[in-house]
Specification:
With 269 residues, the protein is of the alpha/beta class. It contains 9 helices and 10 strands. 32% of the residues lie in helices and 22% in strands. α2 packs across α3 and α6 packs parallel to α7. The protein is globular and about 50 Å long.
Length: 269
């Protein structure tokens, strides 16, 4: 069974307890700092104040980003990768800090949501994308190119990922679809590797990591979301049929397979 360790508290305090160079892959979906009196959103077809929670209200976003990224880089193995999700509100800060810390930026991945929520306002384009920085400590990082090709039906995988947004499984406002994390974890790690999510939220990264037979460490500051994540991950089982399928997929002699349709059959979707 995968080793699962969950922490409820401030990432800047908890991550200091972790051993240097001990993590194989980090997926981070940090606060975008969108909440407050001057930020608006849409709820039930009406414009309202954006208030995701106190965790999304940060006085100095650049200082905060630098501190947690520095700690993530400390605990990341030399051949590990860090994947950081965000939008235009936070991503320029992240990209600048990665360059300042001399990280090797591998890709900027664009996650395109073809079913993005329409806008009420008529003064801008509909936001339909999120961005994911992919970086490593050097050019010597783990990246399963062959599996990425097979997941993409025999073609090179591009940095534009069309993955529909999904109805959230929990009350967390920024929950990511499991398909997104499946792709990241499969390409960026191996079975029994250690995956870290420093902003665990409702636990999607942990659910996928456990299902794919990876060890997982999650940190979440909000107690409500921590409890939701804990329960979700506890109720997740390793999908042995899926693991066997993926092992066949990584066999050089295996043919090209339709990844998601095969997973759907395995899960009886």
């Amino acid at each position: 069974m995968p080793d699962i360790k969950l922490f409820n508290g401030d990432v800047l305090e908890i991550i200091k307890q972790f051993e240097s160079k001990s993590i194989d892959l980090i997926f981070a979906d940090p606060p975008y700092n969108l909440s407050g009196e001057n930020y608006l959103t849409c709820r039930s077809g009406k414009i309202s104040k954006c208030d995701k929670g106190l965790w999304d209200q940060i006085e100095n976003i650049n200082e905060f980003n630098r501190k947690w990224i520095e700690e993530c880089i400390r605990v990341l193995k030399d051949n590990g990768t860090i994947w950081i999700s965000g939008t235009l509100h936070n991503h320029p800060s992240i990209g600048t800090i990665l360059k300042q810390l001399n990280l090797w930026i591998i890709n900027d991945i664009i996650w395109f949501k073809p079913n993005a929520t329409p806008l009420i306002q008529k003064n801008r384009f509909v936001p339909s994308t999120e961005l994911i920085w992919l970086a490593g400590k050097s050019k010597q990082y783990y990246f399963n190119y062959d599996l990425a090709v097979k997941l993409n039906n025999g073609k090179q995988m591009r940095n534009l990922w069309e993955i529909p947004a999904e109805r959230h499984k929990t009350i967390h406002p920024t929950e990511k679809p499991e398909k997104l994390l499946e792709r990241i974890i499969l390409i960026g790690s191996n079975e029994q590797d250690i995956i870290l999510d420093p902003f665990m939220g409702s636990g999607t990264t942990g659910v996928v990591a456990k299902r794919l037979n990876r060890n997982f460490i999650g940190i979440e500051i909000d107690e409500t979301y921590y409890c939701i994540a804990q329960k979700r991950i506890e109720n997740t089982q390793i999908e042995n049929n899926l693991i066997q399928f993926l092992r066949k997929l990584t066999d050089k002699n295996s043919g090209q397979l339709d990844f998601y349709s095969t997973i759907a059959k395995i899960r009886n979707y």
